[in-house]
Amino acid sequence: MIFLALTITLLFTFVQVGALNNGLALTPPMGWLTWERFRCNVNCTVDPDNCISEKLIKTMADHIVTDGYRDVGYEYVCIDNCWMLPSRDEHGRLVADPDRFPSGMKGLSDYIHGKGLKLGIYEDFGVFTCGKKYPGSEFYLKTDADTFANWGVDLLKFDTCNSNPSDFEYGFPAMEFYLNKTGRPILFSCEWPHGQHGKSNYTAIRNTCNMWRTGIDVQDSWDSVMGVIDVYAEDMENFSQYSGPGGWADPDMLVVGDFGLSYEQERAQFGMWAMFASPLLMSVDLRNIRNESKALLQNKNILAINQDPMGKQATLKMKMLKNSIYVFTRPLTNSRIAVALLNKSDRGTPTSVTIKGSDVGLSNQNGYNVVDGFTAQSMGSFLPTSDIVLNVNPSGIVLFVATPK
Ligand code: GLA
Predict the structure, then answer these.
(1) Is 346 among the residues known to form the active site?
(2) Does any ligand 1 atom lie closer than 6 A to the CB of residue 54?
(3) Which of 234, 257, 357, 396 would give a disulfide with 264, using CB separation of 3.0 to 4.6 Å?
(4) If you take atom 6 of ligand 1, which residue's CA is the nearest one?
């Protein structure tokens, strides 16, 4: 009985105090994350240039600065799973593998901060992290929050492997409570809805997390990227309505510049992540990225759509031509509207699509000036009654921004 009362009191405290109020992520967070490209490669003897280590993280941070990514907004340099030793120390604290992180996490965060960047780290709400090789935070939430704050960590990605999904609704707020208590602003990136297969209490998630993974892990293929886009098209439980300044639905990393996507598909992923107001976390080897992929990741017109301060997530407006064309719309500041047409078909020729202005929300009777979302070049002027004729490449995107006259 006493235990129950104590639990309820604690829960009440978390609900009261744990509401997210860290002032972070007013626009979608931008940065780089190890996982999709570098995985759990811990063998620095065999593969010293690609293993999860401070050398890799520092090298990527250097490229983020010298190659212009920081200047366009990429800020968080994030380490995913596989950075720690398999056991905690005698005080119950997590330990970064000293062979791979010889400066320690504090040394690494000093380096990252010295470059004007921020450091992200990964842990798991369960007993172990995914893969079961490393200790999770269960029973150590406060200790781990304090450790991360002492190390100067700026973002925590909190996973859900090896835990009970019914515990998330109090466990994630508890972690947010302890992060807040450290006094250090730490962006809280949760895998909560992913771990519950999308059937979640989004109000509670929005009150707890600065970003939350909506679905499956993205992989390096068009099928995978399209699978993520389908989750957004379906918009299960209207999750689009919860995204906005301070908290963002997260479709997972950008795979632009990796092995699996064509240039058209890279444009499509980047354009759709902008439409969705998604966090932009690149997972790519910045040492040898193709020039066209780099230019895409630094496209200021698309980044401006992604970072639009109103922060509304695009929703599916309609499907056309036997569901091969998806049309998404996103309201932007100053009554502008972004429209994306995505061609799911792999037939090897562009598809000609005709839409009426009013079909995609262009209702201003004086009409709109329309520009290409990637190039900012004029595509003409259209009325609500106008037909807009567009050619959309196979597995490609046409994205335009309409400004009312
Ligand atoms: C899960 C997450 C991924 C990544 C891996 C690391 O699969 O969804 O994003 O963090 O774990 O093991």
Answers:
(1) no
(2) no
(3) 396
(4) 81
Atom from ligand 1 closest to the CA of residue 35: 4
How many C-alpha atoms does 259 have within 13 Å on its Cβ side?
5
How many C-alpha atoms does 141 have within 13 Å on its Cβ side? 20
What does the block give as tokens for 297? 């990741």
pLDDT interval class at 198 (50, 70, 90) = confident
Examine the domain organization and report whether 200 and 290 are in the same domain. yes
pLDDT computed for residue 12 by the predictor: 43
Could you say which of 289, 306, 323 is where a domain stops?
306
Chosen domain end from 274, 306, 338: 306
pTM: 0.95
Pick the catalytic residue from 62, 67, 167, 217: 217
Residue 217 annotated to the active site: yes
Number of domains in the chain: 2
**Using CA atoms, how far apart are residues 267 and 278, in angstroms rounded to an integer?**
15
Question: Which CATH number characterizes residue 330's domain?
Answer: 2.60.40.1180
- Pocket of ligand 1 contains residue 144 by CB under 6 Å: no
| Centroid of ligand 1 to alpha carbon of 355 (angstroms) | 40
- Inter-CA distances, 317 with 161, 300, 340, 399, Å: 35, 25, 10, 14
Bridge partners for 354 per DSSP: 389
Tell me if 189 CB under 6 Å of ligand 1: no
Count Cβ atoms below 10 Å from residue 231 Cβ, excluding itself: 17
Calpha distance 61→117 (Å, rounded): 8
Give the pLDDT of residue 194: 93
Q: Summarize the confidence of residues 159-188 as an average pLDDT.
A: 97
Q: Is 160 in the pocket of ligand 1 (CB under 6 A)?
A: no
Tokens of 130: 């995914």
Q: Can you list the pairs that 61-66 forms with residues at least 24 positions away whose Cβ atoms lie under 8 Å? A: 61/111, 61/112, 61/115, 61/117, 62/115, 63/286, 63/287, 64/32, 64/115, 64/117, 64/286, 65/115, 65/116, 65/117
